[in-house]
Design a protein that fits this description.
heterodimer; A: 177 residues; 1 helix; 15 strands; elongated; B: alpha/beta; 4-stranded antiparallel β-sheet; 32 helices; RNA_pol_Rpb7-like_N_sf (chain A); DNA-directed RNA polymerase subunit (chain A); nucleus (chain A)
């Protein structure tokens, strides 16, 4: 689910950047540091305009200047039970690889796995096809590159990466036409 | 009584029924619940008092399953403060670690459980967590790393197998793995295909990061332009040194496209490489742009789980019956029977495998195998080779051939160590880091050093020198004309893949031939079996059991190639190495050849380097039955799986170099001996060898000169070799010294010499004189041994016997030749070659000593045997 989340970040600036264009530098530094990154249990999608930069302070003992930036960002936090069918293009699941035990889907920044047991029984694995695919021999074909809608069944966060288990064994889930 | 019997029958019937039920169930799915065993952390022995659940009861996690008590000694204090040790019973309950349904109990009330690991109860779980992804069960989404006080087996340990190509996060259980594999096998069988695991580097492609390639590609005048114009390139950003992008230049092995197209009809192809994933994917994009051939079946070092060894079980955890591997390295596969080792594709000369830093060091042998430069650029070699032996060599070759001592001692040890490291998983982070830096350094070095450019420059220089010598003017300006003269460093002639395709086809044919055979025979059996009811049910299982094993088929095909061949390597494997562990030897053995250290009576081939005539070669040259071939012959065998004509690969050894030829084949006596004393005939020959090998009784060769010449046509090299440069002698002497030092326990080489010496004193005198002439130390040794010869009656007896043999043989040869010379005494001194050879003789003397030492040892052994008999 998407949220608008208020956050704070401390940015250190090297003295070589001190000058009239410093504010620009802080901007780019912030965007570079946080956007698209995994912040624990959620992902920072986009930093909103109009954030507030505090007064700079030179850190004693070093020549760096320290700025605290308050900003608001659109974050995405996947929940168990959430159906991932976001209108945002990047949050459509894209199948990355198909194996006999299921298939892997990239949902934005997470890698999700849909196991055999989470696939409707009429969709079968076809290893002879190149590339290999899951198909019901009708309009539903799941192969590498297929856009797919799925429901998150479990999420696990490890340092810097997130894994999800998902299913397509429910109504309105599966490959998007 | 009768009732009892009926009951028994009933029981048996029931049991049978149960069995068949079980089998049916087995075929459909393994419905075996989780077996809970007695955990480690209890105070054994424990005595069960009551089972709290009945079969088919639902249980929750942490629900009590049964109650039990254990006894323990405790210290108790009574009201007066007296301490006493008392044994007490402690009743408690056993809690279930999982939820599910009780299937059946393995214990009863009153059972005493005495140790951990005893089955208690079987519980059917709602989810057996057979497929796990990133620490979660892919079916129920439960966290697999959760541990509580009741846990006996970690959930994550229930799915230990990682069998998918591109992901390490996905693991499956053994049952699931075999199920998946079974399905895959059925699919392959129905398509009549097998699996083929393909290595990338130096097997189907050759990669380099040397930017010279790009320059050559642009420069049409460059002599290498033709060879590199179809080289493909890609850039990997994160992989290069210093984090910036690094261009990789990929040369496809000639005929690759065709090969993949044809082979993919018969095999399902997998990539298994020691390169990174990004690298592997880029290569796959080049060799298989439509992703039709490899699909997603790419396994790189990021997922392989080991940086040193490759194992089939990573991809085929249960069964490798239908898998064939092609790789240029046997050691990383531990010489698996599924492996077809191919000749390394070495297009960018001197580059090697850019992804091999993590692998055990390769045997130094292979790089010298294909000498593409040699034939085209003779004469002006890149390194100053001492002898003008006709052949020149690539740079890499030099240190291995001549400096046998230094690497010879080091290589085997380090190779072994590396192997051990790789066996141990090599997870040492320090080593790993070192290797990572090594890898980076290697890449950086290649980018900056441009080894190719250097090599070509050297080649050009040599060319220019040659041109300058010819024309005398256009040395500095490389005009259009001189371009034509420039030799190209990179050669593009490699036909490995064509042969490989044929071989793979044969394997495929043979496999399915055998499969159909066994299928047919089982069908026949099945008709008979059809009367039984269960036959139909069992069919599908049988089908897979009938599948023949590639591990049986391939070796049997390969063993045919060099059957009854016994090989001795000479000048190829560094001294001090255990030849049995040398790459080339293992490779040869996998084709059914026998590899021995020294020339024995069974030796049929001596595989030698062209450059040096080692003692073994000379030794072999004296026996017409032993074929002396170059390494190319052996490689041709490996490549084509056929035994090529030896004649094409024969190394010519001039009779003078070899020492006198023995007339084994032509001698009627020899044949007679062969017939009469079969077992010892070879030894007899050996003795003859030994005795005639001494340079003086050359009468033998006069009897056989024609044949010797037929066998070994004189080549221009021989003359040179005859004259012999000083360096050549030096290196030979050095080698002989080594060998002598090695065979320390052997009999003194001089002894056998002296046996002849004493028999024909005039000759020995002459020999000694000649020895002194050539300034050789052998003279001293000679006289030494003649002193020795006076001691020991046993030795003398032996000598006498040897002498007798000599005379008989020489007589016969002469008779056959019918020169009319009455006795060996007259022929001996008359021999023209002995006088002519002069300088060359000195070397022969030395060689012969060495050789005789060996022969003497053999002789003695045999003597002992005959004495005993």
């Amino acid at each position: 689910m998407f949220f608008l989340h208020e956050m704070e970040r401390t940015i250190l600036i090297h003295p070589s950047f001190f000058g009239p264009r410093m504010r620009d530098y802080i901007d780019t530094q912030l965007l570079h540091d946080v956007e698209g990154k995994n912040a624990g249990s959620y992902f920072i999608i986009c930093v909103m305009e109009g954030y507030h930069v505090s007064e700079g302070r030179v850190v004693p003992g070093s020549s760096h200047a320290e700025y605290t930036v308050h900003y608001r960002a659109v974050v995405w936090r996947p929940f168990k039970g959430e159906v991932v069918n976001g209108k945002l293009k990047q949050l459509d699941g894209i199948v990355t690889s198909v194996v006999e035990t299921g298939f892997f889907v990239d949902v934005g920044p997470i890698s999700a796995f849909v196991a055999k047991t989470m696939i409707p029984s009429d969709i079968k694995f076809d290893g002879n096809a190149t590339p290999a695919q899951w198909t019901d021999n009708a309009d539903q074909v799941i192969e590498k590159g297929t856009h797919i809608r799925l429901k998150v069944k479990g999420i696990r966060v490890e340092l810097g990466s997130m894994f999800a288990i998902a299913t397509i064994k429910e109504d309105y889930l599966g490959p998007l036409a | 009584m009768r009732i009892f019997a009926v009951l028994m029958d009933y029981e048996i019937e029931k049991y049978r029924e149960e069995l068949t039920n079980l089998e049916c169930v087995d075929l459909v799915e393994h419905v075996v619940g989780m077996l809970i065993k007695s955990p480690r952390n209890l105070h054994y022995p424990i005595t069960v008092t009551e089972l709290l659940k009945r079969p088919s009861d639902e249980v929750e996690r942490f629900a009590p399953l049964f109650s039990y008590y254990y006894t323990s000694k405790v210290t108790e204090r009574n009201e007066f403060g007296d301490e006493s040790q008392v044994e007490r019973k402690f009743p408690t309950k056993f809690e279930c670690e999982t939820n599910g349904t009780i299937l059946n109990w393995k214990i009863n009330a009153e059972t005493v459980i005495s140790a951990p690991g005893i089955p208690i109860v079987e519980v059917d779980e709602p989810c057996r967590h057979e497929i796990q992804f990133g620490g979660m069960c892919a079916t129920c989404g439960k966290n697999m790393d959760e541990v509580n006080y009741a846990t006996s087996v970690r959930d994550s340990a229930r799915a230990p197998i990682n069998m998918t190509h591109g992901h390490t996060a996905l693991t499956v259980s053994h049952t699931e793995a075999s199920r998946v594999e079974e399905e895959a096998k059925r699919r392959l069988l129905s398509n009549r295909r097998l699996s083929l695991v393909v290595d990338l580097d130096q097997t189907i492609i050759h990669a380099t990061v040397d930017p010279t390639v790009a320059e050559w590609q642009k420069d049409e005048d460059n002599p290498n332009h033709d060879a590199v114009k179809d080289v493909r390139a890609f850039q990997l950003v994160d992989d290069g040194p210093g984090g910036r992008g690094c261009w990789y230049y990929i040369k496809l092995r000639p005929g690759l496209e065709e090969f993949l197209k044809n082979i993919s009809k018969l095999y399902e192809l997998h990539i298994y490489t020691m390169g990174t994933r990004a690298y592997a994917q880029n290569i796959a994009k080049i060799v298989d742009p439509d992703r039709k051939i490899f699909g997603d079946r790419i396994l790189s070092r990021d997922e392989s789980g080991s940086l040193q060894v490759k194992t089939l079980h990573r991809l085929f955890p249960v069964d490798t019956k239908m898998v064939v591997i092609i790789d240029d390295r046997g050691d990383v596969w531990n010489w698996s029977h599924n492996l077809i080792k191919v000749t390394a594709y070495d297009f960018f000369v001197g580059i090697g495998d850019i992804n091999s830093s993590f692998l055990p060091k390769r045997d130094p042998l292979p790089p010298m195998l294909k000498p593409p430069v040699i034939e085209l650029a003779p004469g002006h070699d890149r390194n100053q080779k001492p002898e003008g032996d006709g052949g020149s060599s690539i740079q890499t070759k030099e240190p291995q051939t001549t400096e046998t001592t230094v690497p010879g001692v080091e290589t085997p040890v380090s190779a072994l160590e590396q192997q051990l490291v790789s066996m141990g998983g090599g997870s040492d982070p320090i080593v790993l880091e070192q290797q990572t830096t090594q890898q980076e350094e290697k890449i950086t070095a290649q980018v900056t050093d441009r080894p190719l450019l250097k090599l070509q420059k050297k080649l050009d220089e040599a060319d220019e020198e040659a041109a300058a010598m010819e024309n005398g003017n256009n040395a500095d300006e490389p005009s259009q004309d001189s371009h034509k003269h420039r030799h190209n460093l990179l050669q593009d002639h490699d036909n490995e893949l064509a042969h490989l395709e044929t071989n793979l086809r044969h394997i495929h044919e043979k496999f399915f031939e055998e499969y159909e055979k066994s299928l047919a025979s089982s069908h026949g059996g099945r008709v008979a079996e059809l009367r039984g009811e269960k036959a139909a049910k069992k069919r599908p299982v049988d089908d897979l059991e009938l599948v023949p094993d590639v591990k049986d088929i391939m070796p049997s095909m390969k063993c045919e190639v060099l059957k009854n061949v016994s090989i001795v390597f000479s000048g190829l494997i560094p001294l001090g190495t255990n030849i049995q562990y040398a790459d080339i030897a293992i490779w040869a053995r996998s084709f059914g050849a026998e590899v021995t250290q020294d020339i024995t009576r069974r030796t049929t081939h001596v595989v030698a380097s062209k450059q040096r005539k080692t003692a073994k070669v000379k030794q072999a040259a004296r026996r017409p039955r032993i074929k002396i071939v170059s390494l190319d012959w052996l490689l041709e065998c490996f490549q084509t799986w056929r035994r090529p004509e030896e004649v094409l690969y024969e190394i010519e050894v001039h009779p003078d170099e070899a020492g006198p030829q023995i007339a084994l084949a032509s001698s009627p006596l020899e044949e007679l001996q062969d017939g009469v004393v079969l077992s010892s005939s070879e030894d007899e020959a050996a003795i003859n060898d030994e005795t005639t090998a001494a340079p003086t009784p050359l009468s033998v060769i006069t009897g056989d000169v024609n044949e010797a010449e037929d066998l070994m046509p004189t080549s221009p090299i021989d003359e040179k070799a005859l004259r012999g440069t000083q360096e050549e002698w030096d290196s030979m002497n050095a080698e002989i010294d080594e060998m002598l030092a090695e065979s320390g326990s052997d009999d003194d080489g001089g002894e056998s010499d002296s046996s002849i010496g004493s028999s024909t004193s005039s000759k020995s005198n002459k020999k000694r004189k000649r020895g002194t002439d050539s300034g050789n130390s052998s003279a001293a040794e000679d006289s030494d041994s003649s002193v020795k010869s006076s001691q020991g009656s046993r030795l003398q007896r032996r000598k006498k016997r040897a002498l007798e043999r000599v005379t008989s043989l020489t007589n016969v040869t002469i008779a056959e030749k019918s020169t009319g010379l009455p006795s060996p005494d007259t022929t001996g001194p008359e021999d023209p070659q002995g006088v002519e050879a002069g300088d060359g003789e000195g070397d022969d003397l030395e060689d012969d000593e060495d050789f005789e030492a060996e022969m003497m040892a053999e002789f003695e052994r045999d003597d002992d045997e005959s004495d005993a008999g």
